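re: ur question from earlier - yeah i can do the single chain one, its not a big deal. heres the input i used so u can compare w yours
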Amino acid sequence: MIPEAVWREVVTEGGNRPGVQEIESASWLHVVQVRNADFVFSLSRELDVGEAEAIALFREQPCAAILLDEKDARSVAQTLDQPVLGTVGVLVWARKNALIPSLRAQLDALQVVGGFRLGAGIRRAVLRSVGEAEA
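and the output i got, formated as tokens:
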């Protein structure tokens, strides 16, 4: 599930960015309208509307974890006792469950193709956690 604001940010406004077509055609992805607009408005004083809607949606329809990468949004979600997982965490899980052959290759693609920012220390730590220590 993703809130409407995230769909707009990623797909409608995403243009030709990598992954937009895959997301747009994903039949397993469901766009959901958040019901509590007041809560979203309150959160959007600190966060962008996509992150605010994601946190509000999790509150309305809890699941295993909320996917957030931005530091402030993660902090707000954790303050609300929401379990948070980031993109890198999803990739670590996928590597540990043999769904991807190389975490390093996926991190490289995220950073080079997607412009994803990842600190060198975090990169080393996650690679080490799956047995792919940096050379």
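The helical segments are 4-12, 20-24, 37-43, 49-60, 71-79, 87-96, 103-112, 120-129. not sure if urs matches, ping me
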